[in-house]
C-alpha cells in the first residue's frame, strides 16, 4: 500500500487523495459488535439524528449523564460508569454512534462515519433525554462533544477521557503511515472538508475552548496512550479556562475506562 501511494502521490495525487479519504472515514475492521450495554435494568431506545438511526439504553432517574464512545468503539466500553452514577441518583444514557454497535449505518454506508455524525447523534439523544447534567466522552467522542458544545449544545459538566485534540494531527499520521506527501495531503484535507462541510479547524478542540465558553471540564489522559497522545489532553486542559487535567500511568487508551480510581474520580466530578 505504501508503494502504491508513493507512486500515486507523484503521478496521480487526486486519485491517491480519493483513496486516502476512503480510508480516513472507514471504521477499523475490528469494529465493535452490535450488543446492548452489559448492565441490567436498561431500557433500549432508538432516535433519529439527521436521518440516521441511533440506538442506546437508559438507566435510572434524576439529572441525566450521557456516555459517548470513540471511533470504532461502542457504548458498552463505558459500562463501568453506569451503576455508580445511577447509585448517586442520576439517569444515565449511553448510545452508539452511526455505523457503530447497534445503531444504523452512517450517511456513507455501514462502515463509515465522521465527527459531525457523532456530534449530531449526541445532540439528538440529548434533545430526547436532556438536559445534560454532564457528558462523559472517550477519544474521538470528546472531539465530537466539543463540536456539539461549540454549536450550541448545553451541558453542565464535561469529562474528556483520552481525548483526540485535533484530527489534523491524525491526518499527518495517516500520511506518514501510508507514505504520501504534500500533493496528496493537501487534496485529502480538501476532500475531507468538502464531505463534512466545515474547515478542519472546526475540530480543533483546544481552539474551540478559546472560541466559546465551555462548562467545567475534567480531562483524564494516560501517559502510555498510544492512540491519542497525552499532549493533546494537556493542550485541551490548558486552553479551556474551566478545565483541569488528571494524568494516569499504565492504563493506555482504553483501560482507563474501567480503572476503579478513574471511575470514582469521574463520578465524583460529575455529581459534585
TrEMBL record:
One of its GO terms (molecular function) is catalytic activity. Residues 65-266 form the AB hydrolase-1 domain. Keywords: Signal. InterPro entries: AB_hydrolase_1, AB_hydrolase_fold, Carboxylesterase_BioH. Residues 1-16 form the signal peptide. Pfam families: Abhydrolase_6 (PF12697). PANTHER family: HYDROLASE ALPHA/BETA FOLD FAMILY (PTHR43194), PEROXISOMAL MEMBRANE PROTEIN LPX1 (PTHR43194:SF2). This is Pimeloyl-ACP methyl ester carboxylesterase. The lineage of its organism: Bacteria, Bacillati, Actinomycetota, Actinomycetes, Micromonosporales.
Amino acid at each position: 500500500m505504501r508503494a502504491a501511494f508513493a507512486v500515486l502521490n507523484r503521478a496521480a495525487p487526486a486519485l491517491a487523495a480519493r483513496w486516502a479519504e476512503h480510508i480516513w472515514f472507514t471504521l477499523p475492521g475490528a469494529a465493535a459488535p452490535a450488543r446492548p450495554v452489559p448492565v441490567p435494568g436498561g431500557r433500549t431506545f432508538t432516535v433519529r439524528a439527521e436521518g440516521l438511526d441511533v440506538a442506546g439504553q437508559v438507566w435510572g432517574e434524576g439529572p441525566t449523564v450521557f456516555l459517548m464512545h470513540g471511533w470504532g468503539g461502542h457504548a458498552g466500553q463505558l459500562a463501568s460508569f453506569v451503576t455508580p452514577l445511577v447509585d448517586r441518583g442520576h439517569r444515565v444514557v449511553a448510545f452508539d454512534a452511526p455505523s457503530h454497535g447497534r445503531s444504523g449505518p452512517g450517511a456513507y454506508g455501514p462502515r463509515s462515519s465522521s465527527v459531525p455524525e457523532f456530534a449530531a447523534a449526541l445532540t439528538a439523544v440529548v434533545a430526547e433525554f436532556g438536559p445534560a447534567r454532564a457528558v462523559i466522552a472517550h477519544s474521538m467522542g470528546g472531539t465530537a462533544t466539543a463540536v456539539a458544545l461549540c454549536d450550541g449544545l448545553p451541558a453542565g459538566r464535561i469529562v474528556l477521557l483520552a481525548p483526540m485534540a485535533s484530527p489534523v494531527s491524525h491526518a499527518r499520521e495517516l500520511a506518514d503511515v501510508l507514505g504520501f506527501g504534500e500533493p496528496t495531503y493537501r487534496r485529502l484535507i480538501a476532500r475531507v472538508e468538502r464531505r463534512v462541510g466545515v474547515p478542519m479547524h472546526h475540530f480543533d478542540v483546544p481552539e474551540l475552548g478559546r472560541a466559546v465558553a465551555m462548562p467545567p471540564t475534567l480531562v483524564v489522559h494516560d501517559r502510555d496512550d498510544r492512540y491519542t497522545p497525552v499532549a493533546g489532553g494537556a493542550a485541551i486542559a490548558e486552553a479551556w479556562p474551566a478545565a483541569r487535567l488528571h494524568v494516569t500511568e499504565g492504563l493506555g487508551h482504553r483501560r482507563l475506562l474501567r480503572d476503579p480510581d478513574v471511575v470514582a474520580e469521574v463520578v465524583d466530578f460529575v455529581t459534585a
